[in-house]
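call fold(seq) -> C-alpha cells
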Amino acid sequence: MSILALIIEIQLITMSGALAPGPLSIASIYHGTSTGKFSGLKIALGHTIVEFPLYILIGFGLIKLIWFSGVTAYLSIIGGIALLYFTIPLFKYQHSSNLSAANKGIYARPILTGIILSGLNPYFIIWWLTVGAKLILDIIEVLGYGLYTLIYVLHVWMDYAWLLILSYLGYSSLKALSSKYIKIISIILGILMLYFAFNFIIDGIRALLS
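ret:
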C-alpha cells in the first residue's frame, strides 16, 4: 500500500466513527446552546485524552488484556448509567440569551463531557478494537512505528472539525430560535441520549448473561 492510499484509507475509515451519530454528537449540539460555539473543540480535546492512549495501546498490543477480560460488558453498563446522568439536563434545559447563566451542571465542563462520553462508550472501544485496529495495522505496515504517533493527527482532525460544526449549529439555534423551539430540540436530544443509554445497558447485560 502506498502512503497516498493509506492517507485516503485513514480519512474514509475515520468518517465511519467520527461522523456516526452518538453521545458525543448530541452533547456537542447541546453544549453549543449552553457553553458557547467553540465548546465542540473542548469536547474533542476530552475525547482525544481518552482516544490517544487507546490508540497507542492497541498499536503495541497491550489492549488485548481488555478485549479478553470481559471488561467491555461492565463498561457498557456503567456507560449506560453515565449517559442517563447526562440526559437529565437535556430535559431540564432553560433557554437563556446569556450563555454564562446556562453554564451550569455537568454540561458546564465540555472537556469532562468528552472524557466521560468517550471512556464509558463501549462502542467507541469496540470500534478501535475492530475497524480501528485494522487501520492501525496498515499504518504500522506502511510507516512503521517511527511515524505511528504523528499519523494520528490525520485521524483526529475530523473529530475536532465535526464536533465544532455541531456545537456551532447548537449556538446558532440559540440565537435564531425562540425558547419554545430550543426546548423541543433539547427534549429530542434527550430522547436520543436515552436510546443510547438503555442500548448500552441492555447490551452489557446480554454480554454478561451469554
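The longest helix spans residues 179-209.
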